[in-house]
């Protein structure tokens, strides 16, 4: 189980990317978003919650082995954060692109309470919570865009 958690922490090696591992992991999550969305909203939400719990355990296991906090190789937080950002979104290229850009922007800059959560909460929960918070904020922005504009495009499945 420990080996699995360590691999999950890096999203099975994606986090070992020499450049921008968080961005690479978010891109690698797009097929997961498509798959989860194809499986239906209940599956999407349950799988995301399960991944959140496993992500906390995985991040903690990685920190226990490597020491320190929030290593750049740990990218399961980006995976879960982007899944949260894209929940209940239409699967258009516009929605995926806007969701991706907003999520990376908030994950990198950590504005408002997101930065506070990143600094104050330690361990596996601390690794995950700021990305989940960024995902929730992005989801709220995306819900607004979805209901108030046509920026997310027609609701055509891309998967």
Brief overview:
This protein is mainly α and 159 residues long. The chain is built from seven helices and no strands. The protein is globular and about 45 Å long.
Count of separate DSSP helical elements: 7
Radius of gyration from CA coordinates = 15 Å
Q: How much is the average pLDDT?
A: 92
How is the biggest beta sheet arranged? none
Q: What is the molecular shape?
A: globular
Number of strands: 0
How much β-strand is present in the residues? Answer: under 5%
Secondary-structure element order, as H and E?
A: HHHHHHH
SSE class: mainly alpha
Give the helix level as a range of percent.
Answer: over 70%
Uncertain stretches of 5 or more adjacent residues: none
C-alpha termini separation: 32 Å
Outline the structure in words.
With 159 residues, the protein is mainly alpha-helical. The chain has 7 helices and no strands. The longest helix has 26 residues, at 41-66. The chain is globular. The chain starts with a helix and ends in an 11-residue tail after the last helix.
Please describe the structure with a list of short key phrases separated by commas or semicolons.
mainly alpha, globular, 7 helices, 159 residues
